[in-house]
Amino acid sequence: MKLVSAVIKPFKLDDVRAALSEVGVQGVTVSEVKGFGRQKGHTELYRGAEYVVDFLPKVKLEIAVSDDQLDSVIDAVTRAAATGKIGDGKIFVTPLEQVIRIRTGETGEEAI
Ligand SMILES: Nc1ncnc2c1ncn2[C@@H]1O[C@H](COP(=O)(O)OP(=O)(O)OP(=O)(O)O)[C@@H](O)[C@H]1O
């Protein structure tokens, strides 16, 4: 299993949600976050220390997927979130050790 974390432009959330439904994703966690990539953020010197300014509002999605689902989920997010302009976002993939459905006690891919 993998945890897919995608940081996208907020106005793309509905499109990405629809694209994820089409590839069979049944659960997503969504958070409002702020961040910067190489284009928008910049560092500022203040009394000898560097400060990062220009955090832009973004939406972060967290999606637990089986290894079999991974490619189609990455493809769905990439296609739906893209505008071709800077700041379209980024997808992070990390190993996911365990998932537990609290109501039933199901674990692993059955709990996704
Ligand atoms: N290396 C990183 N680590 C953690 N979060 C990141 C990283 N790079 C980008 N992000 C997050 O993703 C958001 C979108 O990044 P963004 O698309 O601006 O990246 P970029 O590398 O500058 O790409 P682009 O050239 O398309 O703008 C950022 O606002 C930040 O929240």
What is the beta-strand fraction?
35-45%
CATH architecture, by name, is 2-Layer Sandwich
Helix content: 10-25%
Major beta sheet summary: 4 strands, antiparallel
Number of helical stretches of at least 4 residues? 2
> What form results from the Cα inertia axes?
globular
SSE ordering: EHEEEEHE
The low-confidence runs, each spanning 5 or more residues with pLDDT under 50, are none
What is the highest CATH level, the class?
A: Alpha Beta
Question: Could you tell me the mean pLDDT?
Answer: 91
Number of domains: 1
Major β-sheet strand ordering: 2-5-1-6
Pfam families: P-II (PF00543)
GO molecular function, one term: enzyme regulator activity
Protein name: P-II family nitrogen regulator
InterPro entries: N-reg_PII, N-reg_PII-like_a/b, N-reg_PII/ATP_PRibTrfase_C, N-reg_PII_CS, N-reg_PII_urydylation_site
Please describe what this structure looks like:
The chain is an alpha+beta fold and 112 residues long. The longest helix has 12 residues, at 70-81. The chain is 20% helix and 37% strand. The chain has one domain (2-33, 59-111): Alpha-Beta Plaits (2-Layer Sandwich). The strands form two sheets. Strands 2-5-1-6 form a four-stranded antiparallel β-sheet, covered by helices on one side. Helix 1 (13-22) packs antiparallel against helix 2. It has helices at residues 13-22, 70-81, and strands at residues 2-8, 29-35, 42-46, 49-53, 56-65, 89-95. Strand 3 and strand 4 (49-53) form a beta hairpin. Bound molecules: adenosine-5'-triphosphate (ATP). Adenosine-5'-triphosphate (ATP) binds at residues 7, 35-40, 56, 58, 86-90. The modification O-UMP-tyrosine is found at residue 51.
